[in-house]
Amino acid sequence: MTRVKRGIISLKRRRNVLKQTKGFRWGRKSKERLAKEALLHAGVHRFHDLRKKKGNFRKLWQIKINAACRENGMSYSVFMNKLKKANIGLNRKILAELAEKHPEIFAEIAKKLR
C-alpha cells in the first residue's frame, strides 16, 4: 500500500482554532485543547450577548425619543400611540436618530401628531 500523509487537514483545523483565540489569556491562546474549550464558551456568550444588545439598543432609542417628546410637550407612550394611529411607519431607530441629530424634523413630526 502507498503511504498516506494526513497532517494537512488536522494542521489546518488547529491553525484555524488558534487564529480565532488570538488575544485570549494564558494557555487558551496557544494550547489547542484549552483553545477549543475557550472557543465553545465564547460562542455561547456571543449568542446571548447579541440578544442582549438588541434589547439594550431598543431601550436607548426609547430614552432618546422620550427626551425629545418631552421637549415637544408629550410623553413617549402618547407619541408612539399617535404615530401608530396616523400610520406613520418610522421605527424607533430612525426616530431616535431624528431626535438626536435633527431635532427640528422631529419637532415637525410631533407637531403633526398633536
From TrEMBL:
MF (Gene Ontology): rRNA binding; structural constituent of ribosome
GO cellular component assignments: ribonucleoprotein complex; ribosome
Keywords: Ribonucleoprotein, Ribosomal protein, RNA-binding, rRNA-binding
UniProt key word Ribonucleoprotein: yes
The keyword Ribosomal protein appears for this protein: yes
Cross-referenced InterPro entries: Ribosomal_bL20 (IPR005813), Ribosomal_protein_bL20_C (IPR035566)
Classification via SUPFAM superfamilies: Ribosomal protein L20 (SSF74731)
Pfam families documented for this protein: Ribosomal_L20
Database matches in CDD domains: Ribosomal_L20
GO terms classed as biological process: ribosomal large subunit assembly; translation
Domain of life: Bacteria
Function: Binds directly to 23S ribosomal RNA and is necessary for the in vitro assembly process of the 50S ribosomal subunit. It is not involved in the protein synthesizing functions of that subunit.
Family named by the database record: Belongs to the bacterial ribosomal protein bL20 family.
Entry-linked NCBIfam families: rplT_bact (TIGR01032)
Protein name from the UniProt record: Large ribosomal subunit protein bL20
Native organism: Candidatus Tagabacteria bacterium CG03_land_8_20_14_0_80_41_22
Gene, per the UniProt record: rplT
